[in-house]
Amino acid sequence: MLLLSSKPKEFLKSWDKPVDAVPIHTTDETTKDKPITIFILFLESSANAAGLCNSVVDYTITKPDGNVYARIKDAELWKNKKPMQKGKLGLGVDYLEIKIEPKDPLGVYTVRATVKDLNANITLDLKRTFMVLKSNK
Asked: On the CB side of 82, how many CA atoms lie within 13 Å of its CA?
């Protein structure tokens, strides 16, 4: 699951608490002066012979005109760690915070994430969009 948040600190603080449910404040809008954070939540990752996972994610963010705004390869989702307990959500280790620069256009940006479980040779493509609006400043 690919989430976009404008309140990442609150989310991460809640995530670290041992509770049954974590409030998730997602968004699909931001302004040029406010960053947006991209998180990946996952259920399972395959273990290798040593009992460790090896999952990564490639991110591509495109501008409203379709040109690439940012590309990040092989960010850690869950590497050299034991698998999550069955049925428990995991939070990808590397999350991405982006802030649209003043020179960049307003409009709909697209986030594509290719999640790769390298042990199981499985990929999953995720996609979300967000709107960059004019700031009230």
From this structure: 3
Alpha carbon distance 52, 41 (integer Å): 18
Task: Tell me how far apart the alpha carbons of residues 76 and 94 are, in angstroms, rounded to a whole number.
Answer: 5
Domains of the chain as residue ranges with CATH: 2-133 (2.60.40.3880)
Q: 3-state SS string over the chain?
A: CEEEECCHHHHHHHHCCCCCCCCCCECCEEECCCCEEEEEEECCCCECCCCCEEEEEEEEEECCCCCEEEEEEEEEEEECCCCCCCCCCEECCCCEEECCCCCCCCEEEEEEEEEEECCCCEEEEEEEEEEEECCCC
Pull the structure tokens for residue 132. Answer: 């960059």
% of the chain at pLDDT higher than 90? 72
Q: Taken in order 70, 72, 73, 78, is the CA torsion positive or negative?
A: negative
Residue range 84-129, pLDDT digits in tens: 888 888 999 999 999 999 999 999 999 999 999 999 999 999 999 9
Candidates 38, 15, 53; CA nearest to 113 is 38
